[in-house]
Write a structure and sequence with these properties.
Number of strands: 0
Number of helices: 16
Helix content: over 70%
Keywords: Membrane, Transmembrane, Transmembrane helix
Largest sheet: none
GO molecular function: transmembrane transporter activity
Distance between the termini: 25 Å
Structural class: mainly alpha
CATH superfamily: MFS general substrate transporter like domains
InterPro entries: MFS, MFS_dom, MFS_trans_sf
Organism: Nguyenibacter vanlangensis
CATH class: Mainly Alpha
Shape: globular
Protein name: MFS transporter
């Protein structure tokens, strides 16, 4: 028996109805949306604090906060009643949104953004919970459905935030997030089953087991590395898009940047599709196809100037990254069913650290070389993911 299995609470399979699945998908989308509100609003926030360079740190702080929340909060899903934990995190999320809306300085907004990212990891409590409740034959489809809700939150959050910031101001977007988080808390309280761990595992011991899982599972390491590179490519685009559209060639505001979220929402359809492919044929084909689509998207961004090129590229970027994400999760969740929260912690922490790096380096590349430098960065990150996949395939055939 593996180290992960001896340390993990047992999991009882419970049939997951369609209504509960869609409710979990909606709640996951509401939660994760909070870490992307700032991206189309970044230019407006910078204008609100003209004497400070701190607003440029907001996307990176949010991603880092999310990564730390994944490490410190998500493992609690293997130790506590997930229903109570999810509701408590949504209430904490609403509280931090109030702080963000009232922040008097850019520095405090950066700190609040990090806390917001940590609280928003409630989305990553929901995903492994859904995987635990689903039957093995339906797990890919169930996770794909929940992930489609999560990905809808990522993409449509930009549309909503761009519109609200342009017409009412950026603070009002954070205020709007408060009742949304509270509604999600109430929804999860009503529809989720109680699920108490049957083993008494200490929090410190559970955190220590993260190291053992990472050390003992090369499949987990490769999946995490590949998805981190793809997500770095993904966040590089979305971090800079609003700034790119403000250039004289476009001269567009945050509302237009937000509308690209609707375009990118086409990628949501990749999530359940990739889940079904993984259930029937295995996930590896979908992962490789997703990485190739991401490279092609960046080639379009670099070579096809104008709005049409951005639209086509966004569709391909989101299809590629989201399809690979669901397929990677299918691989990771199959490793140790009784440690899914901790496996998800490792996988998503690596992915969002990649996102934070992509956001930070994209900001630097933008200031150093403009959009051309950003397209090079995104292409290199996607190619790195392909190299990881090639290495994984080489190891599997030895």
């Amino acid at each position: 028996m593996s180290h992960a299995q001896t340390l993990s609470p047992s999991i009882l399979s419970v049939p997951l109805g369609r209504a509960v699945t869609f409710a979990m998908a909606a709640a996951a989308g509401i939660a994760v949306a909070n870490i992307y509100y700032n991206q189309p609003m970044l230019g407006v926030i910078e204008n609100a604090f003209p004497s400070s360079g701190a607003p440029a740190l907001i996307p990176t702080a949010t991603q880092l906060g999310y990564a730390f929340g994944l490490v410190l909060l998500v493992p609690l899903g293997d130790l506590l009643d997930r229903r109570r934990l999810i509701v408590a995190q949504f209430i904490a999320l609403a509280t931090v949104l109030i702080v963000s809306a009232m922040a008097p300085t850019a520095g405090l907004l950066v700190v609040a953004s990090a806390l917001l990212g940590a609280a928003a990891t409630v989305a990553q409590q929901i995903v492994p919970f859904a995987a635990s409740l689903a039957t093995p034959e339906q797990r890919g489809r169930t996770v794909g459905t929940v992930m489609s809700g999560l990905l809808s939150g990522i993409l449509l959050s930009r549309t909503l935030a761009g519109f609200v910031a342009a017409h009412f101001g950026w603070r009002q977007m954070f205020w709007l997030g408060v009742p949304m988080a509270l509604v999600a808390a109430g929804l999860m309280l009503v529809v989720l089953p109680r699920k108490h761990p049957q083993a008494d595992i200490g929090y410190g011991f559970a955190l220590k087991s993260l190291f053992h899982l990472w050390r003992d599972e090369p499949v987990l390491r490769r999946a995490t590395a590949a998805q981190a590179a793809l997500f770095a490519s993904f966040t590089a685009f979305w971090t800079i898009l609003a700034l790119h559209l403000q250039e004289p060639a476009f001269h567009m505001g945050p509302d237009i940047a937000g509308l690209f979220g609707i375009v990118g929402a086409v990628g949501v359809f990749a999530a359940p599709l990739a889940g079904r492919v993984a259930d029937r044929h295995g996930p590896h084909w979908a992962i490789s196809a997703g990485a190739l689509l991401t490279v092609l998207a960046w080639l379009i961004f670099g070579l096809w100037n104008g709005l049409a090129g951005l639209v086509v590229g966004v569709i391909m970027l989101d299809l590629g990254v989201q399809g690979a994400l669901v397929s990677h999760q299918h691989v990771v969740f199959a490793l140790h069913p009784q440690a899914r929260s901790r496996l998800n912690t490792i996988f998503m922490t690596g992915m969002f650290l990649g996102g934070a790096i992509g956001s930070a380096v994209a900001t630097w590349a933008w200031h150093m070389g403009g959009w051309g430098a950003v397209t090079i960065l995104g292409t290199v990150a996607a190619l790195l993911a392909i190299l990881v996949r090639i290495g994984a395939h080489s190891n599997s055939v030895r």
